[in-house]
TrEMBL record, chain A:
<comment type="similarity">
    <text>Belongs to the Integrator subunit 14 family.</text>
</comment>
<dbReference type="Pfam" id="PF20504">
    <property type="entry name" value="IntS14_C"/>
</dbReference>
<dbReference type="InterPro" id="IPR036465">
    <property type="entry name" value="vWFA_dom_sf"/>
</dbReference>
<dbReference type="InterPro" id="IPR046471">
    <property type="entry name" value="IntS14_C"/>
</dbReference>
<dbReference type="Pfam" id="PF19435">
    <property type="entry name" value="IntS14_b-barrel"/>
</dbReference>
<keyword id="KW-0460">Magnesium</keyword>
<dbReference type="GO" id="GO:0034472">
    <property type="term" value="P:snRNA 3'-end processing"/>
</dbReference>
<dbReference type="InterPro" id="IPR039841">
    <property type="entry name" value="INTS14"/>
</dbReference>
<dbReference type="InterPro" id="IPR045814">
    <property type="entry name" value="IntS14_b-barrel"/>
</dbReference>
From TrEMBL, chain B:
<feature type="region of interest" description="Disordered">
    <location>
        <begin position="607"/>
        <end position="694"/>
    </location>
</feature>
<dbReference type="Pfam" id="PF10221">
    <property type="entry name" value="Mat89Bb"/>
</dbReference>
<comment type="similarity">
    <text>Belongs to the Integrator subunit 13 family.</text>
</comment>
<dbReference type="GO" id="GO:0007346">
    <property type="term" value="P:regulation of mitotic cell cycle"/>
</dbReference>
<keyword id="KW-0963">Cytoplasm</keyword>
<feature type="compositionally biased region" description="Basic and acidic residues">
    <location>
        <begin position="607"/>
        <end position="658"/>
    </location>
</feature>
<dbReference type="InterPro" id="IPR019355">
    <property type="entry name" value="Cell_cycle_regulator_Mat89Bb"/>
</dbReference>
<protein>
    <recommendedName>
        <fullName>Integrator complex subunit 13</fullName>
    </recommendedName>
</protein>
<keyword id="KW-0539">Nucleus</keyword>
């Protein structure tokens, strides 16, 4: 989840902070101090996060485009200049553009807005923006909510009392709820000083930038991993299940499935699964034979050289073209697979399915997936030529069955023409003729379209009169029989107009001529 | 606001209300899309409520005499071909009645709905004349177009001669409200699951009434009737277990009038009558206008959007060698258009005006053949073709149903091509997949080889691959829980647990898993239950190992990390036996028979032999080899009756089991067991010979292949005994002539 740091560089940020101590700080210094702490944390614990730095006053500027180079971010941060007044709306519009250009409209982002809580005056102030919210045209809409999912963290170099003294807090709260409600406002506790700014940024880090550590298990094989970006809690149904579901820190593999069978499933998010070295007693099973291999494990230098389950799993998934189904929580699953970044680099990746007992219709209910050894015979066949997937749905969709739709006249005409075409090739086409005839009959009865039945009966009668002399005698019999049956159906007589009644070919015997229905 | 909050907005819900405020006033909820369609479920109110208004839809279709009136839309059935045209007068065209129009359009609504939501969105269909005929129920098995068509046929068209005074749509509307109070299977399930918070399960619904109204006053009368009935029914429902009061009801009145007539009823946008009931009126001419109105409604009601696939090459029957390009329009959940929602359609797709409908155009990319690729797909949505039985539609759907996938790209005038979607079929259902087409936030990650364990090079990748194949999943749709109360997925986890109790990750950590001879035992011991035969096989494996040790066969012990030649042979066997014991001990609790296997190992495994004894054994060796060989031949001759042979073997083995533990412990050198099982000795010795000394990649590979082959069929004894794949024929002749059989190198020395 990329981060945009939106830094207020308006003049009010240069207000000095009153301190008993010797040194005099500006609010901006405190902000820079806090952000430095954030950047340092990210550089060590969250280094795959892309971060951009935007400075704003009445104008905004993208100071550092999205990068993982925290030195550049830090350097630019240290050299920010001071400008005029605060204008949040245009800056937020800028953030919106920057994010969409880089990541498109679906990638979730975090915006860290660092401001002193003086939100401008007159036009362009947040107060003004919020007051005019409802009087805007389509082209001048307020940038929030962002078109992409976003968490907005508003970090104030001010304490809550100060903000509540004006309407600043109200405005910021309104801003937060406009953004979709995900996020938080952070204020400083007590006097404005280095210590309290550290405490505040510490809270932000704890809240939004703590790496997600978990244990990946496959039976008794296990590995400590970091999942990046950290998986976010998911809200399923606000009424039935109002508590967001979070990925648990025990990721348990439940079995394996071929890539072809899982078939590009839709996923909520993708995450790298990075094995990490954790100092702890070696309690893993499998270490039994390892005792003669190495006595001292658990140092970081040794980490690369001691076998790790993630690497084994990754290698085999890649070679076999399979994915591992992994349980993330109660009724929540995902998959692990090898993802190649380029030809040389590949990685263990985890994708999260939508929570629920049946995230992929073609696998059926996950709880009903079991080991192949339980099946009476191997469902994959002895030579892997078969597969138990996809699971077929109970009913067919309309496009997979021969439905009749006459909304457009052409649909109806095609169906009538089909019958007439076959009528002209009687008796060879007797079966197709009756099949089409019955299909039309059923639809006409369901739609209460009895006039159509009469009309087609007339058409068949006329075909009968137009039969050439060379025609087989059976043709005439079948045509008038069919016409008769349609007329009966259109009469509403319950015997003939029953939906499930089927018009069967007239039984004729032209055995003398060696043809007739028995030719079929 | 002329257009009320979206169906899912609740009072008091600040976020929802604010979103509504931000939306363009008066715009259709469907077409703005700007304020709701975020991927994350926590962002999209429409995805967040199982029991929204669209959970239950009641169709009430007017079956009164006036519905038998003609719609005056004429259809030419008599399409004469030119050659025949002169000969006759064409038949008069036919006209659909208002009833036929209403029924077929509502069926089309249902078809689209069932295609896209095969579950959880339910329809209750009723027709009203002098009474109300309810054609189906909320039950899942009643939810299909076939069921409804059959029931409609039974009702038939309205009777024009019935007394109009007795007939009214009101019967249907009253029944519709009653039906909305009835609990669905889903609601029941949810209420049962959430006993303590059952109030979270809400009851909302929609009534779509297709009728021919007399006037605006008549319409108001119908609305009032619904409102009153809701109030009455809610009182009734409050005291019942099987009924639920209606919290929210949307009434959609569609007034249908014949073409050419002036309408007597005016359109009206959605209006809140009370906090429970909202109502809207659509006045529509019968025929295609009605069809497109209901198409728009189904899209609005179920959050659908339209995509037109363009440039689909199709071969014409008449001109088989040329292909023309066709377009096919599909409906699906609007989330599939998430990335277009910011109005950048002018670059991403094009929005074309077709009536009131909007569609996004995507271009067909000729499919590649390798479909076994894991695409990064952010959503998959069921589709329904707009024009289901037109030739281009059925051509496309059949292509997909046959298992092909098609990538779709955004039409762009310039720049690189952007593939944003994929059409693919899973189990007879076609899905529009949304693919990620923007920059990935996970780009350029550190390679796995740079992280923990990345420097280790001898992972048992192939073995773990084999392990994964054995632990593949399959579906058990009819087995909910086994005897122990475990769901299939729990059994899968249990199997993984068993299979990994002892599983060294790298080749140099293990001896036994590098030995062909151990494979039969290793495969069996992890099983939940062992048969008598399984135990026999395990024991044979152990005897075989004993034999190998006796013959001083080398073991594939890793020399990695140790200087020089590594441990001595005796030490190697000690390591091997220890490891084997570790493996079996991990499973000893599983069953009696697992215990038997461990006992067998404890009984057979070597004690450090005295130097002398070993020498003695060395001298005896030649002798024994001869014996072994002879026995081998014996059993081969007898081998024509394998069943009796095996039976005998089983019985012998059982006897041995009883005696062995005592006898053999005392004299581990005793040749008895090996000689009794000569065939196994022959079979399993072979691969071991090849792995003399440190294991090479070739020998690993060869042993793997051999292992795979040996599972499929018993190896020819000729090949088993061959040297460099050449087997000497008529060895017994030589043997009889007193020559050494083993001079060809078969023996281990």
């Amino acid at each position: 989840m990329p981060t945009v740091v939106l830094m207020d560089v308006s003049l009010s940020m240069t207000r000095p902070v009153s301190l008993e101590g010797a040194e005099e700080f500006q609010r901006k210094n405190l902000a820079v101090h806090g952000l430095t702490m954030l950047f340092e944390h990210m550089a060590t614990n969250y280094k795959l996060e892309f971060t951009a730095l935007v400075a704003f006053s009445s104008l905004w500027e993208l100071m550092v485009p999205f990068t993982r180079d925290y030195n550049t971010l830090q350097e630019t941060l240290n050299n920010l200049e001071d400008y005029d007044k605060t204008c949040l709306e245009s800056a937020l519009q800028g953030v919106s553009n920057i994010v969409q250009q880089e990541w498109g409209g679906t990638c979730p982002c975090q915006v860290v807005l660092v401001t002193d809580g003086s939100l401008g005056i007159g036009r362009g102030s947040l107060r003004h923006s919020l007051a005019t919210l409802k009087q805007r045209g389509e082209d001048k809409k307020f940038p929030l909510p962002f078109p992409f999912p976003c968490k907005l963290y508003i970090v104030c170099i001010a304490n809550a009392e100060e903000l509540q003294a004006t309407d600043a807090m109200d405005n910021l709260e309104q801003l937060l709820s406009l953004s979709g409600g995900e996020g938080q406002i952070f204020t400083m506790d007590g006097p404005l000083c280095l210590k309290s700014v550290q405490a505040m940024f510490g809270k932000l880090i704890d809240h939004a930038y703590m790496p997600f550590h978990a244990v990946l298990r496959c039976g008794n094989l296990a590995s400590d991993v970091q999942v990046f970006p950290r998986p976010e809690p998911v809200l399923l149904d606000e009424e039935l299940d109002p508590v967001p579901k979070a990925v648990q820190t025990e990721l348990e593999i439940v079995g394996f499935i071929e890539i072809g069978d899982i078939a590009s499933p839709p996923v909520l998010s993708r995450h790298l699964v990075l094995p990490i070295a954790v100092n702890k007693e070696p309690d893993e099973v499998g270490a039994g034979a390892a005792d003669e291999m190495e006595e001292d494990t658990s140092t970081n230098q040794m980490a690369g050289k001691s076998p790790n389950f993630c690497v084994l799993l990754h290698g085999s998934l890649k070679v076999e073209g399979m994915v591992a189904l992994v349980q993330l929580g109660p009724d929540w699953y995902g998959m692990l697979y090898s993802q190649a970044d380029s030809k040389k680099k590949s990685n263990l990746m985890m994708s999260l399915f939508e929570p629920g007992p049946e995230p992929l219709p073609w696998l059926g209910k996950i709880s009903q997936l079991g080991p192949i050894s339980d099946a009476p015979e191997n469902p994959y066949g002895e030579d892997d030529s078969k597969s138990p997937f996809p699971v077929l749905p109970k009913s067919k969709r309309s496009y997979a069955q021969n439905v009749t739709v006459w909304i457009k006249a052409s649909g109806l005409q095609t169906d009538v023409q089909k019958i007439l075409r076959n009528a002209r090739k009687l008796p060879e086409k007797t079966q197709t003729f009756y099949k089409e005839l019955n299909r039309l009959r059923k639809a006409a009865l369901a739609f209460g379209f009895w006039d159509l039945l009469k009309c087609v009966a007339e058409l068949l009668d006329r075909e009968c009169t137009l039969l050439p002399d060379s025609a087989h005698p059976d043709a005439a019999f079948q045509l008038s029989h069919a016409a008769q049956q349609l007329k009966l159906a259109s009469s509403g007589d319950s015997k003939y107009s029953a939906f499930d009644h089927v018009i069967t070919p007239m039984l004729t015997d032209f055995s003398g001529g060696g043809s007739g229905t028995d030719r079929m | 606001m002329p257009c009320g909050p979206p169906p899912s907005a609740r009072f008091g819900d600040v976020i929802d209300l604010l979103r509504v405020l931000a939306a363009e006033p008066g715009a259709l909820w469907l077409s703005t899309g700007s304020c709701t369609s975020h991927r994350s479920p926590s962002w999209d109110p429409s995805r967040m409520k199982m029991f929204s208004v669209s959970h239950k839809t009641v169709f009430v279709v007017d079956h009164c005499p006036y519905m038998s009136e003609s719609s005056r839309q004429q259809i030419e059935c008599d399409m004469l071909t030119k050659s025949r045209a002169q000969a006759m007068i064409p038949l008069a065209p036919v006209y659909k009645s208002l009833w036929t129009c209403a029924v077929e359009c509502s069926m089309e609504y249902c078809r689209i709905l069932y295609d896209i939501y095969p579950a959880k969105k339910l329809i209750n269909y009723m027709v009203s004349d002098s009474e109300c005929h309810i054609l189906n129920t909320w039950r899942e098995e009643d939810q299909s177009v076939q069921e409804l068509m059959s029931a409609l046929a039974a009702v038939g068209p309205p009777n024009p001669h019935e007394d109009p005074e007795c007939c009214s749509i009101l019967h249907g509307l009253v029944a519709a409200v009653e039906s909305l109070c009835k609990i669905t299977e889903y609601q029941h399930e949810a209420r049962t699951a959430l006993v303590d918070v059952a109030h979270r399960v809400s009851n909302r619904g929609r009534i779509i009434c297709l009728t021919n109204a007399k006037s605006d006053t008549h319409v108001r009368m119908l609305e009032d009737c619904v409102l009153e009935t809701i109030q009455e029914q809610n009182k009734l429902a409050a005291g019942s277990d099987r009924l639920m009061p209606i919290q929210q009801c949307e009434l959609v009145l569609v007034h249908i009038y014949p073409q050419g007539d002036d309408t007597l009823v005016s359109d009206r946008q959605k209006k809140e009558m009370t906090s429970v009931l909202s109502s809207e009126v659509h006045s529509v001419r019968a025929g295609r206008h009605l069809a497109s109105k209901l198409n728009v409604l189904v899209q609005q009601h179920f959050d659908l959007a339209s995509t037109t696939i363009t440039n689909i090459p199709m071969k014409e029957e008449q001109h088989a060698n040329t292909s023309a390009n066709y377009d096919v329009e599909l409906l699906h959940h609007r989330d599939a258009h998430m990335e277009f929602k910011n109005g950048d359609l002018h670059t991403g797709g094009s929005s074309k005006e077709s009536g009131i409908r909007e569609t996004v155009t995507l271009k067909w990319c000729t499919p590649r053949t390798n479909s076994v690729e894991l695409q990064y797909c952010t959503g998959a949505y069921r589709i329904s073709p707009v024009d289901v039985n037109s030739r281009p539609s059925s051509c496309l759907t059949n292509f997909l149903l046959n298992g092909r996938s098609v990538l779709l790209e955004q039409p762009r005038k310039a720049g690189s091509k952007v593939v944003s979607h994929m059409l693919s079929c899973h189990g007879g259902e076609i899905f529009l997949h949304m693919l990620n087409s923007t920059r990935s936030t996970l780009e350029d990650p550190p390679s796995i080889s740079e992280g923990c364990g990345g420097r280790v090079t001898d992972y048992r990748i192939t073995d773990f691959g084999e392990f994964m194949r054995e632990n593949r999943l399959t579906t058990f749709p009819h087995v909910l829980v086994d005897a122990a109360g475990r769901a299939p997925i729990e059994r899968a986890k249990a199997q993984l647990e068993r299979h990994t109790r002892y599983w060294p990750m790298i080749i140099s950590q293990t001896t036994i898993f590098n030995m062909q001879a151990v494979v039969p035992l290793a495969n069996l011991i992890v099983k939940d239950t062992l048969t008598e035969d399984d135990v026999l096989t395990c024991q044979k494996t152990v005897y075989n190992l004993v034999d190998m040790e006796r013959k001083n066969d080398p073991l594939p012990i890793s020399t990695v990390g140790s200087r020089g030649k590594g441990p001595k042979r005796d030490e190697q066997y000690r390591i091997m036996w220890n490891e084997l014991e570790t493996l079996v001990k991990a499973h000893v609790e599983t069953s009696e028979r697992h215990q038997q296997v461990l006992e067998c190992i404890s009984a057979c495994r070597s004690k450090p032999p005295e130097e002398e004894e070993r020498k003695k054994r060395g001298r005896k060796r030649e002798d024994k080899e001869d014996k072994t060989e002879k026995n081998g031949k014996d059993s081969e001759e007898k081998g024509w009756t394998p069943d009796t042979e095996r039976l005998k073997g089983v019985m012998e083995r059982e006897k041995e089991n009883e005696s062995e533990s005592g006898v053999i412990k005392d004299s581990p050198d005793s040749p008895e067991p090996f000689n009794k099982k000569p065939r196994l000795t022959l079979e399993d010795l072979q691969p071991q010979e090849k792995s003399k000394g440190p294991v090479s990649l070739l020998s690993l590979w060869t042993s793997r292949i051999t292992q795979a082959n040996s599972r499929k069929h018993p190896e020819f004894s000729g090949r088993l005994n061959s040297i460099n794949n050449k087997a000497e024929l008529y060895q017994h002749l030589k043997d009889e002539n007193g020559k050494d059989v083993h001079e060809n190198g078969k023996a281990t020395r």
